[in-house]
Amino acid sequence: MNPPKTTPPNNNNATWVQNIPTQDLIKWRRHIHQNPEVSFKEEQTSKYVEDVLKSLSNIEIIKPAKTSVIGVLKGAQPGKTVASRADMDALPLQEETGLPYSSKMKNVSHACGHDAHTAMLLATATTLSKMQDQIKGTVYFIFQHAEEQPPGGALDIVNSGDLKGIDAFFGMHVLPNFPAGHVGILPEGAASTAQDIFNLTIIGKGSHGSMPHLGIDPIVVGAAVVSALQTVVSRNVTPGEMTVVSIGKFQSGDAPNVIADKAELAASIRTTSEETRKMVENRIKTIIDNTTKAYGATYKLEYIPTYPAIQNDAALTTLARNSAATILGKDQIFNAPMMTASEDFAYYKKIAPVGFITLGIGEGAANHNPKFNVDESALQNGVKAQVQIILDYLNN
């Protein structure tokens, strides 16, 4: 196996670059890619990660949850404590890349890049473990389960009590359709969206299609609800503030001449501030309640808040930008737009400030697409950026 092409570091003093395990980085990524496991079932993946960390000899192992692993590297000198996180879970999705190292598991694949995240953090841990005598402070390498499945693995780790005295958290996510190996600096403040979900059952009264006056048509009621919900963003949210209400499910009836007795709807809601998040929830609930009553129907509503928005700390964002530019060069750094997706990395802010960035992986299918793939030449730059950010934070 040939190592990916690399770009010489711009920081001429970064002799540690030669310690990056380039071939292992690709080997680890491909092994994890071939053996994906869905959220909360990452048993073999977490064991694989633990075995690699144990082979480094100077990293302490913590198991904060059944399928999560934390490696702790204590530097030779006292100082601050910083954490870097990678998620390990795959998606319940059949891979269609045709790669020679495609998923061996039917209907399970790493279609979001978590295999790359895990391999890069293993390489970061390996590189820093060889520099223990130069490190001032402590580094936590968090290999997290279940990012894809609410309530999310981050919350388990935060609530475990195993994150001792951490001063800052950093994370990185691979994204297609940005130049491979280029690091994207997400905005200060809201760097992603919060996601909430609702499941709604509208209960009407079934009837023959020729006798609608004897029934209460849940499809008509549901259509009125969907139409009214379009006003939440257009008439209640401050113009320009990113908010989305998307109805992804509307199911009712089985025959053309029968008025069904119920309709099932589901939606995804994205917001960036807690104030707007609560306002949107209240408006949605009010619209559903009033609309169904107006048509004489009843309903059952399950409103599920999931991940909050990542709130990037200004100082950590600036440090990440400067560190990445130091090791890669300013021409490989770009201002990344806010992610409209959601990420449970946001929960680490309960403990300390967070900084989240992205890594371009070249042209290709979007995350969560069966044809999603990673340009492996990008991964070494991801490791360089992670190592430089950690070193600069501890030495600052």
TrEMBL record:
Keyword rRNA-binding: no
Species of the source: Adhaeribacter radiodurans
Keyword Hydrolase: yes
PANTHER family in alphabetical order: METALLOPEPTIDASE, PUTATIVE (AFU_ORTHOLOGUE AFUA_6G09600)-RELATED (PTHR11014:SF63), PEPTIDASE M20 FAMILY MEMBER (PTHR11014)
Entry keywords, A to Z: Hydrolase, Manganese, Metal-binding
Domain Peptidase M20 dimerisation: 198-294
Protein name: Amidohydrolase
Pfam families in the record: M20_dimer (PF07687), Peptidase_M20 (PF01546)
Residues given in the record as Mn(2+) 2 binding sites: 112, 114, 148, 368
Cofactor(s) for this UniProt protein: Mn(2+)
Superkingdom of origin organism: Bacteria
InterPro entries from the UniProt entry: Amidohydrolase, Bact_exopeptidase_dim_dom, Peptidase_M20, Peptidase_M20_dimer
BP terms from Gene Ontology: diaminopimelate biosynthetic process
Residues the entry annotates as binding Mn(2+) 1: 173
One of the record's GO molecular function terms: metal ion binding
Cofactor note: The Mn(2+) ion enhances activity.
